[in-house]
Design goal:
The chain is an alpha/beta fold. Among the domains are: 5-42 and 212-289 and 390-441, FAD/NAD(P)-binding domain (3-Layer(bba) Sandwich), CATH 3.50.50.60; 102-199. It is 32% helix and 21% strand. A 7-stranded mixed beta sheet has the order 8-7-16-17-18-15-19. It has a 5-stranded parallel beta sheet with strand order 10-2-1-14-20, covered by helices on one side. Strand 16 (310-313) and strand 17 (320-323) form a beta hairpin. Helix 5 (150-156) crosses helix 7 (185-197). The protein is globular, with a radius of gyration of 22 Å. It starts with a strand and ends in a 31-residue tail after the last helix. The model is unreliable at 454-472 (pLDDT under 50).
Length: 472
């Protein structure tokens, strides 16, 4: 131990990552988390005998930081990555279509799938291909890219509402937590380039085969304690005070925690309130990041009604659905489907009965076998502020890890990682904050080198059956 003390506020992925990094470099680390569990917005709950994830999260093969964290937690065996991108797309009254990439290099790897995509006319398919090539040429760092929506740019390139709903929102909604009509062009460019247009394999989808509690929460507690991190769970940081030697973090009772560096890894609205006395002006911009909700429906049928481990919906209010029967421990013979609704401002206002009335018929339209099945359970989980709102102008509002106060750093998906609010963004922000804290403390960064991650040339990822769901 170096004797240098670091306090980390927030036990989500960003805080977990920062704590492991700082401890690995020899700092004495205390992690303060208001909940009595770790994982932040990625957690599991037990309801009606099922171990359900609060929201459905997927990642990409190219999410190396997140996959590296799972290696450190020892839970990488509970996730799987598709050997090759394929998305079953369902539309009422139509045969399912498998949107699948080929082995050709990008962007040709998607040419065949787009050429056969049945939910666009031949003319629309050709226009979509031309638009995708134009999207590759945009410099997302240009100021204009953060001033208009992805939908406005698509309209300029001939993509009408039908094409946007059938194709572009298929990717934009689950990754940006907003439809293309409302999302920042700059972030949209990042998503489509990084996931689909630059590398053939980086967009292959990764799934959580186990629950988030088994993959993140419980393994993180074991890993942090093993690394020597002191965990202060169930304690709410109420105030951060600057002292002659660094900082004190107070939880409203007793003596404060002393530290030479503090990393604040909580949502932007909470960080703004907590740090206003120290930072003043800059925190006002963080509140303008806004919030976008996610609603998840948890439906248990008395029989198997969907043959796909996950699927996307077109021409239906069902955006994505996932078979979580095995992970959640559904009763024998039953199937548990989780329906993930991103950018769900309308659904957030609906009652459980209203959601049931709207979505059970929609599921029957997509899944013919659901029409004769009995619904054993229908539950709803809501995240009112699941992510920051990825709208135009957001790029100028996201801060980096450093603040104007030396030794005080920021982490979280809302900070400027370049990514939208994803699992990968959270982990990247934790690394950046830890790196900044260690540098300011004069501690040499000595992070463990992750084992080589599986690539398409290594067939190990093909073994497990995918089960999971998208989230921002």
């Amino acid at each position: 131990m170096s004797g240098r003390r670091v306090v980390i506020i927030g036990g989500g992925l960003a805080g977990i990552t920062a704590a492991l990094d700082c401890a690995a470099a020899g700092a004495h680390v205390t992690l303060v988390e208001v909940r009595r569990r770790l994982g932040g917005a990625a957690y599991s709950v037990r309801r009606e005998g099922l171990e359900m994830d609060n929201g459905q999260h997927v990642f990409l093969r190219g999410c190396l930081a997140y996959r590296g964290l799972l290696q450190r937690l020892g839970s990488e065996h509970l996730v799987s990555v598709q050997p090759r991108l394929q998305i079953p797309v369902l539309k009422p009254g139509c045969e399912p279509y498998m949107l699948r990439r080929s082995s050709l290099p990008a962007p040709l790897h998607l040419a065949g799938a787009l050429a056969r995509y049945p939910y666009l006319s031949p003319r629309q398919r050709l226009g979509a291909a031309r638009t995708a090539l134009a999207l590759r040429r945009i410099d997302r760092r240009e100021r204009e890219a953060d001033r208009i929506t992805l939908g406005q740019w698509l309209a300029r390139h001939g993509q009408g509402p039908d094409a946007v709903a059938a194709l572009w929102d298929l990717i934009a909604l689950p990754t940006l937590n907003l439809p293309a009509a409302e999302a920042s062009l700059a972030l949209g460019v990042f998503v489509f380039r990084r996931g689909l247009l630059t590398s053939a394999d980086e967009g292959d989808i990764g799934f959580h085969v186990g629950t988030l509690g088994d993959i993140i929460g419980r393994p993180a507690e074991i890993a942090l304690r093993g690394a020597g991190v002191e965990l202060a769970l169930g304690r709410r940081a109420e105030r951060v005070r600057q002292t002659a030697t660094g900082f004190e973090v107070h939880d409203g009772g007793g003596d404060g925690l002393s530290a030479e560096a503090v990393i604040v890894a909580v949502p932007h609205t909470r960080a703004a309130t907590l740090l206003e006395p120290l930072l003043g002006g800059p925190q006002a911009a963080w509140r303008r990041l806004g919030a976008s909700p996610i609603v998840n429906l948890h439906v248990v049928y008395d029989r198997t009604v969907c043959e796909h481990p996950f699927a996307a919906g077109v021409g239906t209010p069902v955006q994505y659905l996932f078979d979580r029967s095995g992970a959640a421990g559904a009763p024998a013979g039953c199937q548990y489907l989780a329906v993930s609704l991103s950018g769900a401002e309308r659904e957030m206002k609906l009652s459980v009965d209203a959601l049931r009335e709207r979505f059970l018929p929609a599921l029957e339209e997509l899944l013919p076998r659901a029409r004769g099945a009995r619904v054993e359970s229908f539950l709803v989980t809501r995240e009112h502020a699941a992510t920051f709102r990825a709208a135009p102008g957001v790029g100028a509002l996201r801060p980096g890890p450093l603040t104007s106060v030396p030794g005080l750093l920021l982490a979280g998906t809302w900070t400027d990682t370049g990514w939208p609010a994803t699992l990968e963004s959270a982990v990247l922000s934790g690394h950046a904050a830890a790196r900044g804290a260690l540098r300011q403390l004069g501690i040499e960064e000595t992070l463990p080198r992750p084992r080589a991650l599986t690539t398409p040339a290594r067939a190990a990822t093909a073994a497990a059956r995918p089960a999971g769901a998208p989230a921002p």
